[in-house]
Amino acid sequence: xxxxxxxxxxxxxxxxxxxxxxxxxxxxxxxxxxxxxxxxxxxxxxxxxxxxxxxxxxxxxxxxxxxxxxxxxxxxxxxxxxxxxxxxxxxxxxxxxxxxxxxxxxxxxxxxxxxxxxxxxxxxxxxxxxxxxxxxxxxxxxxxxxxxxxxxxxxxxxxxxxxxxxxxxxxxxxxxxxxxxxxxxxxxxxxxxxxxxxxxxxxxxxxxxxxxxxxxxxxxxxxxxxxxxxxxxxxxxxxxxxxxxxxxxxxxxxxxxxxxxxxxxxxxxxxxxxxxxxxxxxxxxxxxxxxxxxxxxxxxxxxxxxxxxxxxxxxxxxxxxxxxxxxxxxxxxxxx
Length: 336
Description:
By secondary structure, this protein is α/β, with parallel strands linked by helices.
């Protein structure tokens, strides 16, 4: 049995006994070993229920996904209890569909990989505050996709929004300040245009463009400092180092381009998965399972050992050391 890490934050998970009962219902025996390693990946950390069967060569035998986007659009964002209930209602069907599509029986699986930590809580509230659900071009889009789409029609310099934490010489990210600034701008524009909260502003595209640009610059600068620190401490080679950007943020092409400017300036290579593999999917969980099975890390042979955790620290926290280094980041032209 494999339990895997995935970066996202805290949705409640099913109980241990419920998960064990669920896995056994498919006839999975974690004690069996097969020469041909096939992994079933199950992803339930956020708002989509997904499963996939992948072999150790990277071949995807079958996958299935149930999107909750339509449900969450009605509330302007993910509501954890609702997402949890939808996972319960759909997980068994999705796993069966993935196995059926792959034509693989449960007894042929070498392991089952599941997301155990953490799960996404609530996204940045700008997709919601701008009421883009009411915009004809964005009504069926998730928040991030709607912002990216609308930003293409706006002027990123129309509003002067400063990137957060400019004086902090570390690599931490923070979007709380940005959210407050954006909320004040929206409130002010609503007053100027004489519209009620929940109606669409004429300047919505400009706000989307400014927020996206500021977010990209913030991520780029913090990443730039991280690369410089790692090279300074010989944690990365001086040339031909690789930066991998994945997850939902990496599906935003504007942010990808900002990170590409950073990697070009630091003699690194940027690698990003295809957009469809940046959002919730069972393939990434299955492949993580294959890597862990090879390394013998996080492998459980008794399903009673499954634990779910709300937080997922990545490695050793050296943020204090990074701050003490006080690395000055060269200014880069973000011409995107």
